[in-house]
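Q: My labmate handed me this sequence with no annotations at all. I'd like to see what the chain might look like in three dimensions before we decide whether it's worth expressing. Could you predict it?
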Amino acid sequence: MEKKISFIHCADLHLDSPFKGMSTLPAHLYQELKRSTFDALDNLVALAINRNVDFILIVGDVFDESIQSVYAEMQFLMACQKLEQAGIEIYLSFGNHDYNQTKQRFVQFPDNVHLFDSDQVTSKVFEKDGEPLVAIHGFSYLERAVTINKTEQYQPVSNLPYQIAMLHGSIQQSKEHDHYAPFQLSDLINKPFDYWALGHIHKRSILSEDPPVVYSGNTQGRSVKELGEKGCYLVSLDQNKKAQVHFEALHAIQFDQLMIDVSHCQQIDQLYQLVTNHLVKLDKQRRIVFIKLLNYQDPLLSLYHQGKITDLVDVLNEQYQDQPDWLSIQQMTLTKQADSIDTTLEARDPFMKELLQGFDSIDWEEAMSELWHHRKARRFLDGLTEEEKQQIAEEAKQLLRFQLIGNDTYED
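A: Here is what I predict for the chain of 412 residues:
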């Protein structure tokens, strides 16, 4: 008799993520944001139970750090216990963020959790109705970085209908991510496996359909780099090797970026109306929004450097933050071919060239030392991310240009 299987593929839960750079949110919204990775976990458990899946694959980075809070460990333990009561198995590996969990853990997982606790690829067998049915292959990180190609270690188990592989790593040619457990796509496709469950990359994607080679992405966005819906894949397989792969959203709060053409905006009320028109088109749910104003003209630049646009963000947030399905504008910036402007300035004025190039070699430790060591302020400040440093430098460039040449432009 043909046996079908259904399972959930997820990865990169990053429980207890600190959400660096987001502490400017109102306190109650920031607390909701910090809770969001756990809410996504609750949504995962509910989905698994409602769909009555056979098992769940969690492909690395369950936790955000190598040493977890008791709260994070207990929340994950209770999720596993709920799934055990529902008769759902969990196949779990640890990645580069939570590698230390293989050596140092303060909770005992229930019997439904099958942990890959070796840095060598091993196999575990899932049984259905007492019959061995699926070989599930995987490994965990024992150190923060795994730099070798692990695909040779994946070997099918004979006499089982299904072979599924879990791999927390990145394509070897990728320039966007650290090359952890690097692989070539052809390495995976040429293996006799029915499904490759990938983790580490936070943007979901299906690299191959036959066989399915799939990044599930993370379950909850955490910054402007992780936009849109986040969740998992619900997968079903039959013995004709037909795979059905369906994305299911799990996120509690969605990060979005809006690109708004403001070329015809001259005044603050025009900008208010234009931004509002875009916001009301968004689906009702909790969101954090980053807005880029494109093709701005000099009047808007002047308003920006006078702090008027920052004030406008406050006005908008006051209207949208105090709702059950709240929306918060985290940032509103101007974008207008900055590279070509800077190139023109540098080409025509050696003084401007020297000033602008100085922003490429900022000594951040020295520049921020007075603030970081301030007796009162330092308690409320996190370190700057690279993205935040770039943003500050770019805004400083714009301000410098505005202060030196105002609304005038260079002409031949």
